[in-house]
Amino acid sequence: MTFEQIINDIKNKIFFPVYFLYGEEPFYIDQLTAYIEQNALDESVREFNQSIVYGRDVTPKDVIDLARRFPMMGNYQLVVVKEAQDLKTIEGLEPYLDSYLDTTILVVNYKYKKLDKRKSFYKKLSKTKNVVLFESVRLYDNKIPEWIEKTVHLLGYKIDPVASELLSEYLGNDLSTIYNELEKLIINIKAGQTVTVDDIERYIGISKDFNVFEFQNALGTKNVLKAQRIAQHFEANPKEHPLQMITIMLHNYFMKVFLYHQLKNRNSKEIAAELGLHPYFLNDYKRASANYPVQKIKTIMSQIRTLDLKSKGVGSTDGKNYGDLKELVFKILH
User: Fold this and answer.
1) Does residue 100 contact residue 67 with C-beta atoms inside 8 Å?
2) CATH of the domain at 12
3) What is the Cα–Cα distance from 22 to 83, expressed in whole angstroms?
4) Contact (CB, 8 A) for 77 and 106
5) pTM for this structure?
6) Are residues 131 and 150 in the same domain?
């Protein structure tokens, strides 16, 4: 089952005896767990029929004993095992799958880990009738802007591509952090409105002018003055713009420019898909590829790797020296 299918079933009051939610991305696991908690039972019977325990505090036998109780004054009881990855032996829950109760909704919240699909426990979970087995897969970085756009749409708003890219660059791939920032953002915006970079600067605090996204654009268009001003801003605000983060993003940017050279004879849709970009940004990469031939990009990539090593203290006594970044900017642009 997909995340959306599980949510729709719950909205329609369709519940299953066992939900095993697992995977490396905790966001969807916590979202589903919370949604089941909020909707499985009427508030009047939660005191009697809802048990929430944590993996570090219980054994599999404790969980099974809770799950085999019958509900009081209601059709279901809800048993939620949070942080189930802390159970010493998750496989100890396997006997319950052989004789689960239809009157129990057991939710197992198993985060940050994959299950071994070779083991009997996974096979039993995947084959047992009325067991919802959901894997929450961590998104690749290039999928984050698309996820932001989709999430903003579900919240009843729109967001322009530059704004979603800016959020992605600065908030990384932690979906929970991004979602929390989006919730804070939309409190200040009228329903149905389009979120812009101005909104992000005003309500989240990410500068629309002095950020890595604008830094990349300045380098791509060979705007020397703008690139130097942004590098100086980074130096003045090292906590918001750590050198290691900047080098990673520059590496990713020039790698995409390099790949654009290899793909430029394909159609725009195929290029955007290969680069993991919104089509809106293709012209930026086309322009950058015209400014930077392949051999120059190879040299730049080598220089970025050198800066990355220096930022980690390799071959440098000061891993936070932004003078090396400004020197890199000069080399890239000349």
Assistant:
1) yes
2) 3.40.50.300
3) 10
4) no
5) 0.75
6) no
Give the residue from 117, 118, 65, 108 showing the smallest Cα distance to 87.
Answer: 108
Using CA atoms, how far apart are residues 270 and 263, in angstroms rounded to an integer? Answer: 8
- Mapped onto helix, strand or coil, the DSSP state of residue 267 is coil
Phi, psi of 104 (to 5 degrees): -110, 140
Radius of gyration for the chain, computed over Cα atoms and rounded to the nearest angstrom: 25
Tokens 């400014």 correspond to 291
| Tokens 């993996």 -> residue | 55
The per-residue DSSP string of 286-318 comes to HHHHHHS-HHHHHHHHHHHHHHHHHHTTTT-S-
Q: Are residues 192 and 172 in the same domain?
A: yes
**How far apart (Å, rounded) are the C-alpha atoms in residues 231 and 324?**
10
Question: How far is the C-alpha of 217 from the C-alpha of 257, rounded, in Å?
Answer: 12
What is the secondary structure of 180-247 as a DSSP string? HHHHHHHTTS-TTPEE-HHHHHHHT---SSSSHHHHHHHHHTT-HHHHHHHHHHHHH-TTTS-HHHHH
CATH number reported for the structural domain that contains residue 285 in this entry: 1.20.272.10
124-141 pLDDT, tens digit per residue, is 999 999 999 999 999 988
What tens digit of pLDDT does each residue of 251-260 get? 999 999 999 9
pLDDT number for residue 319:
57
Looking at the structure, tell me whether residues 131 and 7 fall in a common domain: yes
**d(Cα 272, Cα 263) in Å, to the nearest integer?**
10
- The predicted structure's pLDDT at residue 315: 67
Assigned token pair, 317: 């006594």
Integer Cα distance of 202 and 185 in angstroms? 9
Among 76, 103, 135, give the residue marking a domain's end.
135
CB 238, CB 320: distance < 8 Å: yes
pLDDT at 317: 55
- Structurally, the chain folds into a number of domains equal to 3
- Under a CB-based contact definition with an 8 Å cutoff, are residues 173 and 141 in contact? yes
pLDDT confidence tier of residue 278, bands split at 50, 70 and 90: confident
Average pLDDT, the chain: 92
What span, in angstroms and rounded, lies between the C-alpha atoms of 327 and 240? 20
